[in-house]
Write a structure and sequence with these properties.
Layout (H helix, E strand, L loop, with lengths): L29 E6 L2 E6 L3 H4 L5 E5 L1 E3 L3 E5 L5 E11 L3 H4 L5 E9 L9 E3 L6 H6 L2 E8 L2 E7 L6 H8 L14 H6 L7 E4 L11 H9 L3 E7 L22 E6 H8 L6 E4 L1 H20 L9 H4 L6 H14 L4 E6 L14 E5 L6 H9 L4 H10 L10 E5 L2
Parallel strand pairs: 1-17, 3-12, 3-14, 4-11, 14-16
Antiparallel strand pairs: 1-2, 5-6, 5-8, 6-7, 7-10, 8-9, 9-10, 12-13, 13-15, 16-17
């Protein structure tokens, strides 16, 4: 079992270094480049010129949903409900299309004060459209701070429209402020497409259409995967030994056309935008192994990469997924992953990574350390010493794998 002490991945992060708001222009952020132990500094607009022509660049096109809802009991007590993942119907695309009722796994604020009564949505602006929806919440079962909540509403709207009208974008708790109008646009990538995340894949927040056009002009192909980011992304590692930290399941999907490209990429550099893209891409190897060994895709377990040696090549594993999809007439593979990437992980696909600067003692710092062969302090000491802004709305980095 992995023996990693999370306190070894701590660093001083003063509150004033956390970017509370985005910059006026997405691509005006600072960009740190790390390659072979050396660090230099650019702006994000410079990124296209720093990338190798002919590479393949993969983005996560998940879209953040306004998943925070505020209700009140008849007693006047306020209850916050944070939608985590669909239960009935169990798929994102079908639950967002429901028109009268659905069930979600939720985090419940003030949970102890909610017993069995049906809650009414708080409508502080007396919005007539919100009033017509008459959104209610009923607690089906509870497990500590989480539980199953059934929502019901009256006006025939699809649930995605109900959330758009009634919910708030769930910005990270470390911003220590309420959601504001600017977050509706800027806590979302310009290429966000598939609804389902409760947190943005923040490495993508820097990209503008101009930067994307310049990347493609260099002969770099841009492709998308989709991993819906769960609330677990905010959870600190509370156990001293990382082996005791549970990773939450996150659903992902990858198109057959991209899998074929990845299987045939050879020496072509693969650039991942964000840690969620890395986790999706690196999960594919283990998904393919499950098809080879069991005849069907199985969710990727948290510690699967470390439990044993694997004899299958990356190409064999990816081709197994493509063959499975061909046999079943699938253009897209859907699965879940709990994969944790820590020092000692063997990267099989990703060569370069665009990512922000992450919280101390987080699983994302562990991923960065694994990617740069333990040299993460070189990167973070430079950023701290040169005025870089940290976390979701902060600056960015371009890392080469060591």
């Amino acid at each position: 079992m992995i023996d990693i002490r999370i306190e070894d991945y701590n660093y001083p992060l003063p509150d004033e270094r956390i970017a509370k708001y985005p910059l006026a222009e997405r691509d005006s952020s600072k960009l740190l480049r790390y390659r072979d132990g050396e660090v230099d500094e650019h702006t994000f607009k410079d990124l296209p010129g720093l990338l190798p022509s002919g590479a393949l660049m993969v983005f996560n096109d998940t879209k953040v949903v306004p998943a925070r809802l505020f209700f009140k009991r008849d007693t006047g007590a306020h209850i916050e409900i944070f939608c985590l993942e669909p239960i009935d119907p169990p798929e994102y695309n079908t639950i967002f299309a429901t028109t009268s009722t659905c069930r979600w796994k939720c985090v419940i604020g003030n949970a102890k004060r909610w017993k069995s009564d049906i809650l009414s949505l708080i409508n502080p602006d007396n919005d007539d459209a919100v009033a017509a929806m008459d959104l209610k919440a009923e607690l089906i079962e509870r497990d500590g701070q989480t539980g199953t909540v059934q929502f019901s509403w009256k006006d025939g709207s699809v649930f995605s429209n109900v959330l758009d009208r009634c919910g708030r974008i769930p910005i990270p708790p470390y911003l220590n402020r309420e959601t504001e109008a600017i977050d509706l646009e800027r806590y979302q990538t310009t290429y966000a497409h598939i609804r389902g995340s409760v947190a943005a894949p923040t490495a993508g927040l820097h990209f503008t259409e101009q930067v994307l056009d310049e990347i493609r002009a260099r002969g770099i192909d841009t492709r998308n995967v989709c991993l819906h980011v769960g609330a677990g992304t905010f959870l600190p590692v509370k156990s001293s030994n990382v082996a005791d930290h549970p990773m939450h399941r996150e659903p992902f999907s990858v198109k057959r056309s991209l899998l074929k490209e990845l299987a045939a990429k050879g020496e072509r550099p693969l650039i991942a935008v964000g840690t969620t893209s890395v986790r999706t891409l690196e999960s594919l190897y283990y998904l393919g192994v499950s098809i080879i060994e069991h005849g069907e895709p199985r969710d990727v377990a948290q510690w699967a990469p470390y439990e044993r040696e694997y004899s299958h090549t990356t190409e064999e594993s990816l081709r197994a997924i493509v063959d499975y999809m061909d046999r079943n007439g699938l253009e897209e593979i859907k699965a879940g992953t709990r994969i944790i990437i820590v020092p000692g992980f063997r990267f099989r696909l990703v060569d370069m990574l665009v990512t922000n600067f992450h919280q101390p003692e987080s699983t994302l710092i562990l991923l960065i350390s694994a990617f740069v062969a333990g040299d993460w302090k070189t990167i973070y000491n430079y950023a701290l010493g040169h005025g870089f802004r940290f976390l979701s709305y902060g600056d960015s980095s371009l890392l080469y794998r060591r």
